[in-house]
Design a protein that fits this description.
Domain Amidohydrolase-related: 75-220
CATH superfamily of the domain at 6-167: Metal-dependent hydrolases
Organism: Alkalicoccobacillus plakortidis
Radius of gyration: 18 Å
Protein name: Amidohydrolase family protein
Order of helices and strands: HEHEHHHEHHEEEEEE
Largest sheet: 4 strands, antiparallel
CATH topology of the domain at 6-167: TIM Barrel
Strand content: 5-15%
Number of strands: 9
Helix content: 25-40%
Distance between the termini: 40 Å
Length: 242
């Protein structure tokens, strides 16, 4: 964390904003981990620059303290921050200062995260969490007593609007594709077996969520069931902005 401080994140954000100012290019920030960076982006947006931003569930749910428990499994970039910085970011998310919530999906073979083989600088960097993004968003909402409508905005509506596919994705409306997720408030324990991945080990392994995914539909076709697991389908297609 000290090798990649918040000051470095802010400087990188400021540099990208300067490039966007010069070129007029729309800009989207991924993996924002500090409220200081959020504030810099807000100042730029106040000047009518076309900028959006996101953070990841692990920055909201975990602090730097997790490295003392899970070692290299918690390595990511930017790094997990101090508890007080994590709390500030949670408040920013709660106040709708961050547009959406996405994964930093970076799986790897288990030995690349092995602390007995690799130190923190040489270990694989990134969090295997793409399949748990929605559960992470729901967990944050439950802990902060936020209406689930905001979860739908963070993970579906706002991304679809930002990237020009809201005419067919991002919300439940007549004429749009039936991309649906059914959830329950049954507890979900993350295990290597229910990650359904080639490389299932994750920062989230053995973590408990206060919600679970019951089923997932892509364009009206069921592609996942809690009882069955992933269901083979061919609904995927390349999306272009309108």
């Amino acid at each position: 964390m000290e090798s990649r401080p918040i000051a470095a994140e802010v400087e990188a954000v400021e540099r990208a904003i300067q490039y966007a100012t010069i070129t007029g290019c729309p800009l989207h920030f991924v993996h924002i981990s500090s409220v200081e960076a959020v504030s810099v982006i807000e100042q730029a947006r106040a000047r009518d620059l076309n900028i959006s931003l996101e953070t990841c569930p692990h920055y909201l749910l975990f602090s730097h303290d997790v490295l003392t428990q899970k070692n290299n499994l918690g390595k990511c970039a930017p790094p997990l921050r101090q508890k007080e910085d994590q709390q500030k970011l949670r408040q920013a998310m709660k106040a709708n200062r961050i547009d959406f919530l996405t994964s930093d999906h970076s799986p790897c073979e288990a030995d690349l995260k092995d602390a007995s083989t690799y130190n923190i600088f040489d270990a694989w960097g990134g969090i295997n969490g793409g399949g748990l993004t929605l559960l992470g968003a729901l967990q944050f909402a439950i802990e902060e007593e936020i209406d689930f409508q905001h979860v739908a905005n963070w993970t579906a509506k706002h991304p679809a609007e930002r990237f020009g596919i809201a005419n067919r994705k991002g919300s439940i409306q007549e004429g749009k594709e039936a991309d649906l997720v059914f959830v329950s408030l049954d507890e979900h324990l993350v295990t290597l077996d229910n990650m359904y991945a080639k490389h299932p080990l994750s920062l989230y392994t053995n973590e408990r969520f206060q919600a679970s995914i019951e089923s997932v539909y892509s364009a009206g076709v069921e592609v996942f069931s809690r009882k069955v697991g992933p269901i083979q389908s061919k609904t995927g297609k390349w999306l272009t902005a309108y």
